[in-house]
Structure formats: structure tokens, C-alpha cells
Amino acid sequence: MPVSPKLLVQRDGHVVTLTLNDPDLRNAISGIEMIDAIVTALEAANRDYETRCLILTGSGSAFSSGGNVKDMKDRGGMFGGDVYGVRTGYRTGIQRIPMAMYELEVPIIAAINGPAIGAGCDLACMCDIRIAGRSARMAESFVKLGIIPGDGGAWFLPRVAGRSNAMMMAFTGEQFGADDLLRMGVVSKVVDDAVLLAEARALADRIAVNPPYALRMAKRLIREGERTELGTLLDMSASMQAIAHQSGDHREAVDAFLEKRKPVFKGR
Fold first, then answer.
1. H helices of the chain, where?
2. Which positions ≥6 away from 136 have C-beta within 8 Å?
3. For residue 17, which phi and psi values (nearest 5 degrees)?
4. 171-199 pLDDT per residue, tens
């Protein structure tokens, strides 16, 4: 998998940890180098069936500050040009991240270390599961800058927080701490900062022991179930189940169950 100065990629067995690595800008994600690195890493994970779970976190004291406010002021980067130029900047820039996240087949856990603000909040919401350190804070803060969530947050946030909580976050732009986020259902667990990555890794290991094809198909069905009719989803489920029943990993799982031993899955 690729390594970029803006995104550290570390593999340990079947788990790959992606670390946003621009602490001086609090891991802003609106620069093209960071965008390219994230998209490339996600696409690489899709191609690699040895990767069974991803962890996404940030270096330094923040998960991600979202967009680079200095670039907004200077009309630089993706914020430059006339109205058509800005629209193109978004579509060919930061909006590639939600599309890549949506197409990501591999389960991904956000380990939220510190603030996740604006597009950083949305990035966390694009992940499948969120674990927060006690210093974590999330804010759908676009309104505070007189803009709107241009990175897909209006699609992802209600699916994570529920419509009412999403409206409250988007309309106030305020920051919410870890305990509030847990109460709202935005995160699944709150842990001490010192053990955040260890907790995320323990969960990733519990996921990664399972067959990679089954994991990917289960994720696809859950995602499609958010938008499709029941009959269509049942037909997809039957088709994917037929594939699963013919896999070597399914046979290994059944044999291991009957023989009372741990299965060894090979991704086939």
C-alpha cells in the first residue's frame, strides 16, 4: 500500500492503520496531496484481500480540523477561482474522499483523537465505526464560517447521528464532547486517550479474524439496505449468500465449528 508524508500507512497482519499526518495544520484534509493520499490508500485496500480492517486516526493532538481556513481566506487551493472554479475544486478535490469511502469494501474504524471539526467531523462519520478518546470533540461547524457541508456531510451525518441530532449539530455549528457524542450515538465507545489506538486495534482484530469476502459482502448489504427496497435487498442477499456458500472459507468455518477448533481463513 502507498506511503505518503501526509498519510502514514502501517500494516500489522490483516489490519492497516491510516494516520493523517499533517499536525502543523491539525491534519486538514482539503489539500490535494492529502486528498490523493487518502483516496489512493482506500482504493489500494479494496484491491488487497489481505486487508480485512482499516483504522483511521490523526497524528498530533487532532483527528482533523477539516478544511484549511487560511486557504479559504486567501482563495487558494480548492477554494480558488470564480463560482464555477470553486464547484470544480470541490468535485475534483475533497468530494473524492466521500466517494472513495462509500466505495470502500473493507470495514473501517475511526479512532478519534482530539478535535474532528467540519470536514474532519464528516470524515469520521464516513467510517463504519467510531471510537473516541476522552479529548475527542466533533463539530459540524460549517455554518460558523458562513458555508455548508460541501463534502457530503449532509448525507453521512444524519445516518450516523439521526436527523434531529444532525440538524442540531449543523444548525449550531457547536462542538460536542466525547460523552455527548456517545449519548447521541455518534460514537460507539469512549476510552482514555492513552488506550485509544489499542482499543481500536482490539476491535479491528475481532473483525479481521473473519473471512474477508464475507466481511465485504456484509458491509455492502448493510450499505445498500439504507437506500433500497426490501425485495431488492433480499435478492442481493440470496445472490451473495450463494457465493458465500461455495467459498472455501465457509467450508472451513463449518468444519472448525463441528471440530471445536479455531478456523483458519484464507480469503477464498
1. 32-47, 69-74, 83-92, 96-103, 119-126, 153-161, 163-172, 178-184, 196-208, 212-225, 230-245, 248-259
2. 63, 112, 113, 114, 115, 116, 177, 178, 181, 187, 190
3. -105, 125
4. 999 999 999 999 999 999 999 999 999 99
Task: Provide the CA 202 distance to its chain's centre, in angstroms.
Answer: 17
Flag whether the pTM goes above 0.85: yes
Q: What percent of the chain has pLDDT over 90?
A: 86
Task: Give CA–CA dist 123/182, Å, rounded.
Answer: 17
Residue 127: all three cell numbers together: 467510517
Q: Which residues pair with 56 in a beta bridge?
A: 18, 110
User: CA 144 from chain center: how many Å?
Assistant: 24
Q: Quick one: pLDDT at residue 22?
A: 95
Strand order in the sheet with 189-191: 7-12, 15-20, 53-58, 108-112, 129-133, 189-191
> Quick one: DSSP state of residue 245?
H
| Dihedral Cα 254, 217, 106, 88, nearest 10 deg | 180
Half-sphere exposure (Cβ direction) of 77: Cα atoms closer than 13 Å:
19
Q: Which three cell numbers stand for residue 92?
A: 475534483
Q: What distance in Å separates the CA atoms of residue 266 and residue 257, rounded to the nearest whole number?
A: 16
Condensed to tens digits (0 to 9), the pLDDT of residues 17-51 reads: 999 999 999 999 989 999 999 999 999 999 999 99
